[in-house]
């Protein structure tokens, strides 16, 4: 192995791949077989964290950053004057195996710029995965990018070797895509997505009858949207996400605050802050949809096209729906407990477990580790005291904000004036 | 009454047996190495007995289930001061109750055990993540660690499943023992390690090994996004005390 050459390529192609935020390595169920290398049947593991606090669990690289497309938001776009490089198939295989054996990574996340044609690119990605599985008996995690426009046959083969496949829609709206990536067509993204979805369903039902049916993309599909590159609303982003969760049975939709990489006049200029707070709020809304039983319409609608910046979306929803509170934690059903601001699902399960033995009071809840800062305004327990006093939504909100610290405080203080008109709380 | 035992899990279970035998309801159970003497209490030195510990373990499993017994074992591995006393109260509560007590978090011992198990589990998971193997000249993938709790017994299975085609060893420098996989089974071993084992020198490791560490460090640096810098979050996930084992941090 020529380490100097590999190092140079690795620097270029890891740097180019880092804007894809997915790092998940869970959900695969692929076990070690025949005393081979690797196992991805357990939970995902983050082996390290970058200085920006993101998890490093996979070797995330591009096969090449040569690209025939010129998408304005992408650092690898054709017109960008940057160093280009390309890995050979065997080099990626060797890197993956050697990193994996040293317990640096859970597996490989391989993406690529589109060189020559979508099929030529996809074929090369599939070759890497195939070699890892068949020649190296590698059972670690493999995430492959579905290249927009790749043929159904190649996508089928990809699904046989990869644990997860993803194709990034990047721009949430049709108009935005037209503006920023004129060479790309929405249906080119959707075709491989659709193929994979149908195959997953087919293989799953076949496995019910024939147990030896091979796995097909056992960790499913994911996609990513850039936020803040066009002037889309939170509602546009989240309704698109909800559509993909439902229609394509996505395992995950990722939201990536736009990091300026271009002086293109169509985009926020270099030096503009990454919209970290907005990204955070979108993930909170995503979690509420997937794990807390909220429907998208409850969180975002015509009257509330954007999430509040100063409070989280669950608190924001609760303040708009005070008539549903307070909730009695000793009696309420799981789904209502999950709607109390400040209570995570872990706390919900702790309460459900603990209340079987005795009626819980504030002291119990505190000891169990339930965070009461927000929750106390929305619940009652086995105690005469509770924070009723007919507080208005505005009062509750200001009480909560007074007693909390957020690293985003500066961000939303400066944004508050801008957002006041959209703030759902005005009606109270 | 004070019961002194030999620091092994079987020793602890034997102490529980003995305490019950003496009908002692609030025993102090303490490791021999940690015991500093006491003039006021009666002291009993417990002899570890396989028969006694098996009987206690069987009873615990019957009453607290596999979940409860696992919680007891994991909490025991924390080696925290006085955890034995908490575990005794936990066992008392389990044996006295007619239903499963593992989720009775409003009971102080159950809560303390659950919290300790969480801490131990976190440390176990960190070892799964932060172990960095270095390939020695005789082709053993070797790692040194100093976990906060005695978690290596919990890590063995994970590493055996994953690295079943390579010899590996994870060595706990703090407790001076390691687990070694010889392509067949995992064994506990004790080694005399030179102090310089922490340096990656070509005395022990292949030159290729050192190249791969540098490649990994390079990868780690290239994948960082500077405009999203968040040092607090970074250190929360990778506390400084682990840095000396992570080539991406110390190189």
From TrEMBL, chain A:
Radical SAM core domain residues: 62-199
Pfam families in alphabetical order: Radical_SAM
InterPro entries: DNA_rSAM_put (IPR023874), Endo/Exo/Phosphatase_dom_1 (IPR051675), rSAM (IPR007197)
Name of this chain's protein: DNA modification/repair radical SAM protein
Taxonomic source organism: Mesonia aestuariivivens
TrEMBL record, chain B:
DUF4130 domain residues: 82-248
InterPro entries assigned to the protein according to its UniProt record, in alphabetical order: DNA_repair_put, DUF4130
Annotated protein name in UniProt: TIGR03915 family putative DNA repair protein
Protein source organism: Mesonia aestuariivivens
């Amino acid at each position: 192995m020529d380490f100097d050459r590999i190092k140079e390529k690795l620097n270029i192609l890891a740097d180019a791949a880092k804007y894809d935020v997915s790092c998940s390595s869970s959900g695969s169920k692929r076990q070690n077989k025949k005393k081979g290398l690797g196992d991805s049947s357990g939970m995902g593991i983050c082996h390290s964290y970058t200085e920006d606090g993101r998890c490093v669990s996979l070797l995330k690289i591009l096969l090449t950053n040569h690209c025939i497309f010129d998408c304005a938001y992408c650092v690898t776009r054709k017109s960008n004057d940057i160093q280009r490089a390309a890995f050979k198939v065997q080099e990626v295989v060797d890197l993956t195996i050697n990193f994996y054996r040293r317990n640096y990574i859970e597996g490989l996340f391989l993406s690529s710029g589109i060189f020559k044609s979508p099929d030529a690119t996809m074929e090369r990605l599939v070759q890497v995965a195939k070699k890892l599985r068949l020649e190296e008996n590698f059972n670690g995690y493999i995430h492959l990018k579905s290249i927009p426009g790749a043929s159904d046959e190649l996508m089928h083969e990809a699904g046989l070797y990869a644990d997860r496949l993803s194709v990034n829609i990047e721009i949430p709206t049709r108009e935005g895509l037209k503006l920023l990536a004129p060479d790309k067509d929405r249906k080119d993204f959707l075709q491989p997505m659709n193929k994979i979805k149908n195959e997953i369903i087919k293989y799953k039902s076949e496995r019910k009858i024939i147990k030896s049916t091979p796995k097909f993309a056992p960790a499913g599909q994911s996609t990513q949207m850039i936020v803040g590159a066009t002037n889309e609303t939170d509602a546009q982003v989240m309704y698109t996400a909800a559509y993909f969760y439902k229609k394509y049975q996505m395992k995950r939709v990722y939201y990536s605050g736009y990091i300026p990489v271009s002086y293109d006049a169509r985009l926020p200029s270099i030096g503009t802050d990454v919209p970290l707070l907005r990204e955070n709020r979108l993930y909170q809304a995503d979690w509420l949809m997937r794990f807390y039983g909220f429907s998208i319409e409850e969180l975002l609608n015509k009257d509330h096209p954007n999430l509040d910046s100063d409070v989280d979306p669950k608190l924001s929803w609760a303040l708009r729906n005070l008539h549903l509170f307070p909730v009695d934690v000793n009696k309420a059903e799981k789904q209502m407990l999950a709607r109390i601001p400040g209570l995570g699902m872990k706390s919900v399960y702790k309460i459900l477990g603990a209340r079987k033995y005795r009626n819980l009071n504030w002291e119990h809840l505190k000891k169990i580790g339930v965070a009461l800062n927000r929750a106390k305004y929305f619940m009652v327990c086995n105690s005469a005291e509770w924070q009723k006093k007919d507080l208005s939504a505005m009062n509750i909100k200001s009480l909560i904000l007074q007693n909390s610290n957020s690293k985003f405080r500066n961000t939303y203080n400066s944004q508050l004036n801008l957002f006041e008109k959209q703030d759902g709380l005005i009606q109270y | 009454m004070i019961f002194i035992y030999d620091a092994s899990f079987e020793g602890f279970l034997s102490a529980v047996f003995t305490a019950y035998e003496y009908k002692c309801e609030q025993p102090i159970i303490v490791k021999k190495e940690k015991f500093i003497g006491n003039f006021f209490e009666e002291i009993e030195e417990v002899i570890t007995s396989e028969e006694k510990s098996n009987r206690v373990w069987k009873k615990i499993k019957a009453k607290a289930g596999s979940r409860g017994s696992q919680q007891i074992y994991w909490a025991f591995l924390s080696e925290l001061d006085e955890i034995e006393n908490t575990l005794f109260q936990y066992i008392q509560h389990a044996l006295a109750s007619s239903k499963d007590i593992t989720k009775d978090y409003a009971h102080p011992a159950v809560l303390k055990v659950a919290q300790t198990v969480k801490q131990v589990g976190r440390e176990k998971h960190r070892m799964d993540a932060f172990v960095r193997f270095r390939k020695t000249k005789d082709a053993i993938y070797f790692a040194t660690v100093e976990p906060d709790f005695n978690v290596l017994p919990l890590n063995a299975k994970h590493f055996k499943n994953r690295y079943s085609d390579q010899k590996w060893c994870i060595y706990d420098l703090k407790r001076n023992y390691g687990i070694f996989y010889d392509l067949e089974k995992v064994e506990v071993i004790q080694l005399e390690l030179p102090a310089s084992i922490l340096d990656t020198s070509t005395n022990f490791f292949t030159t290729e090994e050192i190249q791969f560490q540098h490649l990994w460090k390079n990868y780690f640096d290239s994948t960082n996004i500077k405009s999203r810098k968040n040092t607090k979050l970074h250190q929360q996930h990778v506390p400084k005390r682990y840095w000396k084992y992570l080539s991406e941090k110390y190189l």
